[in-house]
């Protein structure tokens, strides 16, 4: 059989039985079997370097051994697996550990809400409590934001294809320009003007929600200065500041929370993806106590908000944050990645490339239609898992597991460069 | 320390660190540690009979041994844990097994969508595709429906406390009376009149969504005849019929799908909760192929739609459906439960009780304010996990694991009866 | 030229220059020139009996002589014509006269708001103040209601063609079944059940809005008993009761307000159409003082809310209500009309007719597709202006000026009967 | 009695019987009786110079003698007063005259829709047809726009006090920055970026609606170049361009349509206020034929869309546009007004004044809280009718009848200057 035929045969089940909505199995048409650290293998035994990390869910790499052992031990002991929000030891230990290792050292004071185990669920809960606390209905979000696919989260998401999928107009949200959105224009000045002018047509919102680095929107990193100004605006008008750190949090940018370098203190923080340790569904919403107390019991809930296996892995993952070593290592690798990104951009001017992002959340925006997609497709054929992002899939997005080493980064970047050469040569 | 003080000490972490939104840890103030079959134990070693089953998530009981073994083996082999919608063996095997064991024998033809691992997510995906296919925006749902807590699902949910939590008006939905909603009135005639009258103010909807037995809404079971009429209305006006079988499906009512006895063929079916085998987050949306093809790749997605541990347990759970034995056993136990429910109602006229539900999804509606809550609280103290449902928490809701045996049912019902006596004696 | 050609020539300007949205000039393709009392004449000198009264705007007939004289005199004296809501004598006199002749004798206490000179405008203002006072967003309206064409009013209107014209989904409203909507079912029981059940999915509304006789919706007259029950529901749940008396008010049903026989006391009443005396644009909203005081100055306004010519004619029209004579005369003519309607229905069983309405707001619902339209078209050819209403234009609607005499009614009914005979003979 | 007591006595009827929503009778607490040209007299015989013109409704002055005579004659002849959209001579003549005098000479091709006789009604009709034609739901409007008070128009209006009055969130609209909204920033670049970026969160709208000079919003005049760019954007993305010329049209800025100097060709134009000649309620919507044909008969309607007295005055008013003389005269007076505005600003630096507007639609923005209001109140006491506009009532707004002469302008400006001196001296 030819390669295409072999691939078709391999993917037959998905083609025949699974919904047309599936996406990753189209771009990476193989069956993945094993994974460890920053490597994955498919059923044909082919090895892949992972520059994707489960869309930011595997910051601690695949199949961390201690997490595996603890999860296995728990199952073996008939530990309670599913518990909604009943009391269990893994839930208790996670809460205590999170306070001790993450909140207290950063002088942050939040109540921890378990809203259901997905990113969109933490966002929906954040929007609800912000609206409830303020009695206002609208929320300001930003261009190219991505906050999730359920109607509440989707209403604050920028992507028109995703929004259109709702099948209904999306309300109670206003889209404002993210940092550096319009050339040479100060987007804070716009936002400020809209807020201060009672004739602007934009109501005082319940909240402003943002990602400090927009992952799906094209790895757009806001400047710390911009974030500080946003916080100042929020304080001035009593608007709640929600940081959606689902993708950029959990150390992705070099600190546990992505907003730490800005020195801001958000009212609500959304975490999911890597919070669950090694890929198990989990999400939490951090809410300042003075706002949290407005919740009624069960006012937002969800069946799977008690995933004990995830709590166990999550608690283990927090060990990485006991000292600064983990963060410093990420920052070092980030610097290495930056250097290489710049090098590639310089070396291949045909890409019309621009560097994007910060920490281990970087990208190359490629100003040639379709080129980023072609490069990523070629990289897959050569053993590198890397995807595009941005409104036109124009950004090659580097999201390796944080535990990757320099050798792994070099290997991955090597494959990427070969792919670029190959595609440009066509 | 007094009991209350001991309880406070035990629950201190949750009180101090967790959000005020928590609910079950308030009603059942202990820390659960172990669970097997239909029994749970807390950290004090106290045993509980489980008439709750993780709100319908543990139909196959706690910690099924084969599921445990298969999951442990997969983790041990560094199987890929988190995969979004990439191809993996557990996903492939689940798809094939689901077709073979569930769809084919029932002559049902659906594509399987993995929408993110929660009930609300499958509902949101169902609403989206229905709106997309029909080009219409509104959806008809029913009084006392519960479909989820994210804004799309919440808009078709009846409970005013939950709706109010949205903090925004909920749109694009119309609430119609469920079967037997108003005494002596035919709710189908009512619905039909609204649909056929172009001046009714109710637009032709994209879909009608319903639970055949409303779990959260008070264990209201629609008659099969009513369901058939709904299907007929849908066909007549080209409205998509969505069955939300998140709680009533997976064998809960005595057949895999709750709608089987009605002989209807819904356009979309939502499954979650027990589909994941032993409590791991998972959800699927079943969509008729002619509608499914309208999805664009990634038009609805979600990070955790590739929970491989759940796929493994889910595939194992499907073995129960290879023959009719499992279903027949559920039906037998359901009959036993019904008989006992009637007996209790007769024996304690002070309850002003009415039987509700079908299969192993039954309840007693108690027409005395606060009484159902008191009974459930007393039952917990005596070692039975059972909760209330209904708009005023007026229904004691029996949702034991389907694998429970007669002995277990007897034990649980015994505790319940003791609790009733105790509460009535006060 | 043939008749059709002559007609085309006559209507050429409208066909060529006016929008396709025009409607009456299509059904009655002529140019009207003169009008007096209950008669109209076109430019060809053809006389028409008016059973339409400007869709209920000309209750006092065409060109009442005293109104004409007073209006002319005012213009002659350079009286201020357009004054928004500045103080003017005609405004002052109308206010005083309305209190004296209408409100005081009926022991009604309302503030008078001038919301802009159209029916939809009074409805929009009523909805606003109800929402403002209660802090609730939704409003309950009824099947086949017609309240206006601007988005707020349209959201509480039933007709699907009109609603669809909005081009956007219409929100913040719930449609409930009007009196006698579903055969043999008690629509109050439905509404009550939805309101009392906190799980119904229908939020406590700001207001219930209704027409006591639905004009556009098919001349559906609610029973007095039903209206009383609605008022009781409103009181029980602190819902504001809005009566839209735009078409049924101003004496149309035999009393100044259509709701007088029910003995109810609405919180808000909407008046327009005939309030302006002889066809000049005017509308008022009557609001109980305790609710009215919640308005901020200018919170609802409109350029043409100071149409002084209308105020003059309106004040003159109120003279009709100084004694009971006018009302009694209407009631007598209504009885005469009823008798004839029944006679026609009996005499022409092919019509499958049902009588509708009350007062001088009556109709014959004809259960044969297209027949009502054919009869009205034929009637026009024979010199009678009468239109259809109802969701399928199935009701012949009798709305003669209230000042018509028995001779006029007989003449009109004679033409109608001839038209019926002619159409049935085809 | 003291003056305040006398005033109270005079305004007693309004205070006691009229709604709290009234506004102008508060600021100008007197009873107006007579009016001619640019002068008004109250019942005490006090004369006022009118720099308000009925909020732009009396461009042709009060009680134009020819209009008076024609209207009186028509009434005398028992001309049909109220006709919905039936054919009548005044309607026919208006249509023909409007085409001949206005459309044809400007090479504009529009169908004329009569949507109900108010500004908000023409806007509602414009939004409907734009949504219908494009199948899109949202409309872009601008900061400080004012389009009307019914829910559809209000949703594209900027003022937060007015919006808040809706009592419901306002949907299907996006507010974009008007020309010169943010200092030194190009608002076209901003708008363009949102439209071209598929991730912007702003959907492709059905229409862009704007006033070329924002009347209520603070007499903000867009530059012609900005208007041209808006038209270009609309063409590029197939967005309908709606010009709301309700206040700025009918010659107010020196040409019949306010947009003529920009050389643009809007898809839809809204006219009301002065279109009715001397203050009678009337509105029209001009729609390009290719879009107009999408209307169904009666898809938007309204009882008072056939105000024949208004048609007669309107037709007479069009005579002013047979030659250029009227327009040239307005332009001359506008230049005189501009000069004086600048003079005042220079002479009274305490005002911190900025000139606003163009044509006879000018203003002085005063950057001192409350000062503009104080000046206008004083001006009233001295015999000048002039109001403020802008989100904080910070702009003194000059809107004299267009037929005013230089003497009238001088007189009015003299009173204004005296008022300024008086207020500044306090």
How would you describe the overall organization of this protein?
- The structure is a homotetramer of 426-residue chains.
- Chain A has 426 residues and is α/β, with parallel strands linked by helices.
- The first copy, chain A, has two domains: 29-55 and 324-425, Aspartate Aminotransferase, domain 1 (Alpha-Beta Complex); 66-319, Aspartate Aminotransferase, domain 2, CATH 3.40.640.10.
- Chain A has helices at residues 3-17, 24-27, 53-56, 65-76, 89-103, 119-134, 151-154, 160-164, 187-196, 224-236, 289-292, 308-318, 325-347, 371-381, 406-425; strands spanning 31-36, 39-42, 47-50, 87-88, 111-113, 139-142, 173-176, 207-210, 213-214, 220-221, 240-244, 268-271, 284-287, 353-358, 361-366, 384-385, 387-389, 395-398.
- In chain A, a hairpin with a 4-residue loop joins strand 2 and strand 3 (47-50).
- The radius of gyration of chain A is 22 Å and the shape is globular.
- In chain A, 63% of the residues are buried.
- Chains in contact: A-B, A-D, B-C, C-D.
- The interface between A and B is large, with 115 and 115 residues.
Largest interface: A-B, 115 and 115 residues
Low-confidence regions of chain A:
none
Total helices of chain A: the number is 15
What do we call the CATH topology of the largest domain in chain A?
Aspartate Aminotransferase, domain 2
Strand order of the largest sheet of chain A: 5-13-12-11-8-6-7
For the record, the CATH architecture of the largest domain in chain A stands as 3-Layer(aba) Sandwich
Number of strands of chain A: 18
Kindly give the count of domains of chain A. 2
- Return the average pLDDT of chain A rounded to an integer: 97
| Highest CATH level, the class of the largest domain in chain A | Alpha Beta
Rounded radius of gyration of chain A (Å): 22 Å
Look at the structure and name the CATH superfamily of the largest domain in chain A: Type I PLP-dependent aspartate aminotransferase-like (Major domain)
Which word captures the global form of chain A?
globular
**Terminal Cα separation of chain A, in Å?**
25 Å
């Amino acid at each position: 059989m030819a390669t295409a035929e072999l691939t078709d045969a391999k993917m037959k089940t998905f083609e025949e039985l699974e919904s047309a909505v599936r996406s990753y199995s189209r771009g990476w048409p193989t069956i993945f079997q094993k994974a460890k650290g920053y490597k994955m293998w498919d059923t044909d035994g082919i090895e892949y370097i992972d520059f994707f990390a489960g869309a930011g869910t595997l910051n601690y790499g695949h199949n961390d051994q201690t997490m595996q052992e603890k999860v296995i031990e728990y199952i073996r002991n008939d530990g309670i697996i599913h518990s909604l929000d009943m009391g269990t030891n893994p839930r208790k230990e996670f809460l205590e550990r999170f306070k001790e290792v993450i909140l207290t050292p950063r002088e942050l004071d939040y109540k921890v809400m378990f809203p259901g185990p997905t990113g969109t669920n933490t966002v929906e809960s954040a929007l609800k409590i912000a609206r409830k606390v303020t009695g206002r209905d609208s929320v300001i979000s930003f261009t190219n934001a991505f906050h999730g696919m359920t109607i509440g989260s989707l209403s604050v998401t920028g992507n028109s294809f995703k929004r259109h999928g709702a099948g209904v107009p999306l309300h109670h949200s206003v889209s404002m320009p993210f940092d550096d959105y319009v050339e040479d224009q100060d987007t804070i000045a716009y936002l400020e003007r809209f807020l201060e002018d009672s004739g602007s047509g934009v109501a005082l919102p319940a909240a402003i929600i943002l990602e400090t680095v927009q992952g799906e929107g094209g790895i757009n990193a806001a400047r710390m200065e911009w974030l500080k100004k946003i916080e100042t605006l929020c304080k001035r008008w009593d608007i709640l500041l929600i940081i959606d750190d689902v993708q950029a949090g959990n150390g992705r940018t070099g600190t546990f929370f992505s907003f730490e370098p800005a020195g801001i203190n958000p009212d609500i923080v959304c975490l999911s993806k890597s919070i669950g340790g090694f890929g198990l569904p989990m999400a939490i919403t951090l809410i300042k106590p003075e706002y949290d107390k407005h919740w009624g019991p069960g006012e937002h809930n969800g069946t799977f908000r008690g995933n004990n296996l995830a709590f166990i892995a999550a608690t283990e993952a927090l060990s990485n944050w006991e000292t600064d070593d983990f963060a410093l290592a990420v920052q070092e690798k980030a610097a290495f990645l930056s250097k290489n990104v710049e090098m590639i951009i310089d070396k291949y001017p045909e890409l019309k490339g621009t560097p994007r992002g910060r920490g281990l959340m970087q990208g190359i925006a490629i100003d040639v239609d379709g080129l980023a997609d072609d490069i990523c497709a070629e990289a897959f054929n050569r053993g590198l898992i890397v995807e595009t992002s941005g409104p036109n899939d124009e950004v090659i997005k580097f999201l390796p597991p944080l535990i990757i080493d320099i050798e792994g980064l070099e290997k991955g970047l090597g494959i990427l460069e070969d792919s670029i050469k190959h595609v440009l040569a066509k």
